[in-house]
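Q: Got a minute? One more chain.
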Amino acid sequence: MKHHESIIGELNNYIVRNVTASVGLSIYILIDTLFISMAAGAMGLTVLNLALPIYSLFSCTGLLLGVGGAAYFSLNKIDHPERVKTLYSELVIFAVLLGTAVIILINLFTRPLATILGANDQTMGMAIKYLRLMSIDAPVTMANYISVNFIRNDNHPGLTMRAALIESFVVIIFDWFFIFGLHLQIEGAALAAVVSPATSLIVLSFHKRFPYRQLEWHWVWPRLKTLKTAAKLGVSACLNELSTGVSIYVFNMVLLKLSGNYAVAAYGVISNIAIVTVAIANGVALGVQPLASREYGTRHFRNVRLALRHGIKITAAIAVLAFVALVAFRHPIITLFNHDHSLQLTRYAMAGMPIYFTSTLFSAINLLMIIFLTAINCATLSFSLSLLRGYIVLLPAIILMGWLFGINGVWAAVPVTELLITLVGFSLGVFHQQDHRLKLMEDAQRKANLTKSA
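A: Always. Here it is, folded:
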């Protein structure tokens, strides 16, 4: 079993690489939002925010198969490699087939979909163009999420970090070229969004040269059993991502009713910044996951406990720093995205940011808690917390608090929800109970080893 210092060093390596990769991708998201605000103004930001739930569907499907499949891969790759020989190939092939079907459906029903998402007379034309082009992103995004998670769990986190950074750099260039060079405006942003995961996949393809890899490619037909196995472990990560899309949709509907398109544009600025904070928290959690799964699979329970405690310290520290920075510099941040100098957008966003981002610490802890539970094969508990966090508490909170307190109540729905889930997690003793359970398993393993040696 590895010593304390060795595990901490390995854990820091995974966390740094995952956070760096997440920040790299987030920079692209922010610059894309900035370019759209410059090219299409507040209505462009509104359309972008209306379309975000669809992107969330693509991402959550990739996470469902990627996080779940990669966790199962890590749990079995050492002791039972035959169980996961074709796992990666089956999931990628299924994602490409599903994504192709999504492209067809979105292009057949674009106008009804735009109406459901909240597009009105001001935004309908722009929304239709954007949705048709962004549909191409579906199979590429799903395949990319699966590949990133598997390669990270195949002992190559450095490649996933490089893929994210190169992806961000390349796509920013394409984003600028499509939007300003070719004068495609918001349609250019949609095309660049397709280039983003495609670039990542090209970089990730170099994993085939990695001498220590266990992943193999096989041309196989996806089996239902494989999909169910991955989905069982990945459902919590999927629900976390999907909850982002669903909550954005509900936010959009409530804000449109309360204050119209400019409130949605302000939320577009806030939600895209929130993507960065969530991505960093996810980076920490996904850095903990491979080691926690591996050490749990090899019955080194002391190291699993160590990974959890170290992850909590790091994610809490980052979250507090992020909150302070966002509140202190909210005016220049908002001005950067308000190319039209809209007083309405500024007023809504200035009031909303300090309220909304009080959720940062609680959100980071909750994400770590949920992904850690998946890593140690506690899928049911992880699923329950995801369901509470993303749906059962949050959605009614947005509607009820918006009705009671207006637009400030809408902003407050997220921190109230995240705080409640953190309290639920600690009141149920999630961290304490899992730490205690792992300690008991560690003691039992030690006794068994002593008995064998005797």
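A: The mean pLDDT is 87.
Q: Perfect, thanks.
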